[in-house]
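Board notes (copied after class):
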Amino acid sequence: MAAAAVLALVAAGPTPPAATTSPAVDLATQARLQKVRAQVVDHAQDVAAHGASPADLLARIDADLSAVAHPDADMPAADRQALDLVAQLDASLAEQLISGSYATPSGEPGATELVVRSSADTSAQPLALYLPASYTAKRSAPLILMLHAQGQTESELLAVPFLRALADQTGAIFAVPYARGDKEYDDTTAGDVYDALAVLRGGLNVDRRRVYLSGVSLGGFVLFMVAPLHPEQWSALLAIAGSLTNDDKQSVVRAMAGKQVFLVIGADDPSIKAQYVRGAADYLLANGVESRLYEQPHGLHTLQSLQPSVERAWRDMLAGMRNVAPDTDFPSPQPETSRHT
């Protein structure tokens, strides 16, 4: 993008929210966001040169500023902390894209924002990472790579409190790639997922027998397009408020034979009918893929309403082991009989 076009695009962005003195607001976070916003404006050409969109970055920061400066008065403390975490991760992303110096997995427990260079076009692709408190480089840990919902960023999904709590409780590495946001699925977006997987496996002690692909809503559909490309990379799949479709069902059953697919749906989901997901689970089972259905009573199309079933599916998924290559010393347990729970 030409320098003049970059500057014009940035200048056309909305005015950031004014600072607030509300006692509930983390003023340090707000100050960091204000500072990094000004830096993005001043260094828009650098951000673009590093393969990112200055306008998209400013939109993130402005949304964070608004959320942090004006939180709902009755918002639970955990949700306030999640807002702050999103802001901190997005600020870190902006700082990396300005400098062109990208963080790599450090092995330190907690949440971090990484930047992965796309193997397709060298663009800078965000990757949010959470390492559980128990993580140590001396012991391998399972990895759950989760694809976000439409209109959601990688930092927003990673900040969901109960998902990070689950990662801590189960000792799982939890990561969310941005994968071009809401861009229509294609080989490039799929490549971003596998680029993220390569970075995580290269920089962390990942148990290769326990690598899982998950997704929420839109991500719960896209995972069924991504996984069949390299099924040997995945131990099992977990779709939350998502499902396979008629377009990809045959490739899924060919790719996931002998592996498990976990499906979570709300009984009262207004967007995706539970009956459709029940049918998908039955189709998988009838075609040689172990399926486990978790239908949440009164559940809607939100993670919070599905939390009990997500927690059960997550734990059940981690309780199994993948089939491994025959030249290893690891056992290859057979999948259990499918059951709906």
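Comment from the instructor: Residues 269 and 300 are 4 Å apart (CA to CA). The domain at 110-318 is CATH 3.40.50.1820 (Rossmann fold).
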